[in-house]
Structures
1.
Amino acid sequence: MAWTKRRLLGQGAFGKVFLAQSSELLAECRRPSDVPVVALKCAKQGDSQSLLREEHVYTILGDSRYILKFLESGWGRDSNGNPEYCLALEFASGGTLKNHLGGRTLCESVASRYTKMLLKGLEHVHQNGYVHCDLKPDNVLVFPTGDAQEDVCLKLADFGRAKRRWQTGSLRLRGTLEYSSPEAVARGEHEVAADIWALGCIVYLMLHGHGMWDHLRGAGNSVLWNSIAQFQGRHLGFVSSLSANAKDFLRNCLRTNPRERWKAEQLLQHPFTRHGGFPS
């Protein structure tokens, strides 16, 4: 596997993501701009387990319109000559959903279309026996389509923290606190219902322009932790302009009891989602 890194796109605990092009194609092509770009996710040898796990999940999930496409993987060398493991993934020219939203409040018709795409991605993940465990706007990528009706396609990405459904293990928080469910925070439970909670938090953000817990920003993680662990559905606050369908959809995603939360296939049949106005 030989890739030429063009620029750094981002970095995290796992390693770094670069915009890259095939070295072989660059050697054969007169104009570098004609060579397709990919997102190259790289980790040092000692930190490669997360990428290996992510690669395995992508392999199991296979091809889906609403899941980021995995292209290939292999060992390479970083700029200092040290070994690194890399995943080549399709590049999202629209960036992340977080950047795409930019603090905006979406109208319900657009939020509904976006929600349907997220649900189709989650349904595919869950039907293939996995839980994402870290669903949030940073891990949803945006692909402009040029279509007037469906302006973008949203794809789920970053499966480094994913787990098998019903897999037992460490009772620690896997995902990002602001998008974690009460049972994940209080008891370390990460099953399908926890992904649905995270989806509800994203839909809340799209419809309100701010997150469910933004009012606690600056209060400290312990305050946020306790607020989520002790969450009661009656404390949900909606803007008055939300439709009854939107409110009902959010309540079914954000039920305190995970056994009462709707599953992806049920939410796809909810009036809020069905009236999104784009083809299935």
Note: The chain has two domains: 3-90, 97-274.
2.
Amino acid sequence: MITNKAVIILSRLDSTRFPNKALKKLGNKTLIEWCITSLMPQKHYKIVLATTNREVDDPLIEIANKYGIQFYRGDCDNVALRVKNCLEQFKIDIFARVNGDSPFPQRELIEEGFKRLEIDNLEFVTNLAVRSFPYGISVEILRAQTYLDHYKYFHSNTQKEHITSYFYENLKTFNFLNIDYGNSNDHNVRLVVDTPEDYLIITQIADALSQINNPTTEDLVKLYKKITA
């Protein structure tokens, strides 16, 4: 039986702290394009962009079509519901959650997470239960059935906005694995665009990456430290 795996990218354009950041240019690509292309080429999973059903997010659909990836449009504020409906529509068995404000998701890390979840018969693989990786380099992988079975217990606004928060709050009840980076000194490095200040740094990193194919986490950390020194 073939397992239907997907990486679900969550993105919307009217961020409170940094509106339209997904469309900000990093070199010759937008932030959301960096996120998408960092996950390519994908052999063992599909990529789905999950955004809202509002007109303001139409440009994200144009980008999804440009790269030939699937998309789902759903609830604006209840992100957990949006993901639930996305899982059901595409009949996904296992999924990784990626935030669209992370331009450099690590494809190999996600592939390893999928592999570990299946081989070790886990319900949840993460590297955020104890943070050791830089911000923006995350892996959160769940069995869709586990997510769907527990969705009815998502009651707080936090649980509805941050779709994995329920699982961290109840971590000991799940068969999970936390992946460790091994370099605790790098966990405060910010490889994410959450603010205009982040954007200025990430723009310089993106410019430097024209000389590096398939940058590793270590490559990105070195560039960050060089730029912010």
Note: The first strand starts at residue 5 and ends at 10.
